[in-house]
């Protein structure tokens, strides 16, 4: 199989649309058959304002060598085996426009409820050590405050299963300005345990249309911030 047939379904849609549809038809009917073809190491830096409001999420994704090489060949219009400034801008625009429908793979939950995120305005692509980097910042569309008695979580997850974007180390999830009375921890769900715990919700409809279900709530590595209720004592 040509690697171009398994590159991200959100990247260069005209280039891979037919192949992606064929692969999705074959890979997504069951969760067991769905598996990532592209890998990225991620870093997330969460900044909290002094009043406890989420100020921004700073994302960095570093993609694997093979996928990075494929992107380089596709966007290297002048054939000099590197991406110049204009080619990187073009790549950034394509990525920005394509992953918007997937909410930039962001998973932000306030007490289990989805938090709508504003569209990033600074997404950029770059190459470092021959690996593709995607860098952007985002923030909630409406102010999100870390309030006492609430639990808020942050992470990334590709609902198509084509990309495994994960944090290699707990230190790749950073909080700046954590309010007093709040604690932060990294949660890494065990896939088998997650499936067992959510068995009642994993219906035929779930497996036949996994993109219609937010599986990030089940499987995604996340940074979880828990703020104690006011007046709680040890």
From TrEMBL:
InterPro entries: DUF1007 (IPR010412), UCP008159_ABC (IPR016537). Pfam families: DUF1007. It comes from the Bacteria. This is DUF1007 family protein. It comes from Brucella pecoris.
């Amino acid at each position: 199989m040509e690697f171009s047939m398994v590159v991200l379904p959100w990247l260069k849609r005209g280039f891979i649309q037919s192949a992606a549809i064929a692969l999705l038809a074959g890979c997504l009917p069951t969760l067991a058959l769905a598996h990532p073809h592209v890998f990225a190491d991620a870093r997330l830096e969460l900044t909290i304002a002094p009043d406890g409001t989420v100020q921004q999420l700073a994302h960095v994704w570093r993609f694997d060598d093979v996928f990075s090489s494929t992107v380089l060949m596709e966007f290297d219009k002048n054939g000099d085996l590197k991406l110049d400034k204009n080619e990187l801008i073009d790549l950034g625009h394509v990525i920005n426009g394509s992953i918007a429908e997937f909410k930039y793979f962001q998973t932000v939950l306030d007490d289990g409820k989805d938090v709508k995120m504003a569209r990033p305005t600074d997404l950029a692509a770059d190459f470092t050590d021959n690996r593709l980097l995607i860098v952007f910042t985002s923030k909630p569309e409406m102010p999100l405050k870390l309030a006492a008695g609430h639990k808020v979580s942050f992470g990334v997850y590709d609902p198509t299963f084509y990309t495994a974007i994960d944090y290699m180390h707990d230190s790749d999830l950073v909080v700046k300005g954590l309010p007093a009375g709040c604690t932060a921890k990294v949660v890494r769900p065990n896939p088998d345990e997650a499936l067992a715990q959510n068995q009642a919700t994993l219906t035929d409809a779930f497996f036949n249309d996994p993109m219609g279900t937010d599986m990030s709530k089940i499987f995604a590595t996340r940074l979880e911030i828990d703020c104690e209720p006011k007046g709680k004592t040890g």
